[in-house]
Write a structure and sequence with these properties.
Number of helices: 5
Mean pLDDT: 79
Shape: globular
CATH topology: Rossmann fold
Radius of gyration: 15 Å
CATH class: Alpha Beta
């Protein structure tokens, strides 16, 4: 696959992504409105289902312009849910668990890999522990591969 082709078949979930143009967790979809079950599965994979259950208006709870009332971890996990909801055979996640405690980070990565079992997932991370969940891992130093597993 050529790099230009990859852009047509991949969805990128940026760790710095705010909540984007939506103003509540129920609007994490990209382009098309998913079925409620599909949305619930993506939120569960990103370990946001318990959090959504605590919101006063559930999925319709306002979170402010660009998710101003969300924590950094909530924003990252919403970006993960968006990436899972986007169509295409490749999901690219950049630092999806940055700022999360190790236990929650592992749960999110495990949830993503289960939810995207029929897709390719590229996880860019500084957490070596996340490599244990992946089929293959590359370690880079100064832009060069210094080790490969899998």
């Amino acid at each position: 696959m050529l790099p230009t082709d990859l852009a047509l078949h991949a969805h990128y979930g940026d760790s710095s992504a705010g909540s984007g143009r939506y103003t509540c967790p129920g609007r994490v979809f990209v382009g098309r409105v998913p079925e409620l079950g599909t949305l619930a599965a993506a939120l569960a994979a990103a370990r946001l289902d318990g959090w959504v259950a605590t919101l006063p208006e559930g999925l319709e709870t306002p979170v402010g312009e660009d998710g101003v009332s969300l924590s950094g971890g909530e924003r990252r996990r919403l970006a993960v849910a968006r990436a899972l909801l986007a169509p295409g055979p490749v999901v690219i996640l950049d630092e999806p668990t940055s700022g999360l405690d190790a236990g929650l980070a592992d749960e999110v990565i495990e949830g993503v890999l289960r939810a995207a079992a029929d897709r390719s997932v590229l996880v860019i991370t500084h957490r070596a522990s996340e490599a244990a969940h992946c089929d293959a891992a590359l370690a880079l130093e100064a832009g060069r591969v210094v080790s490969a597993q899998g």
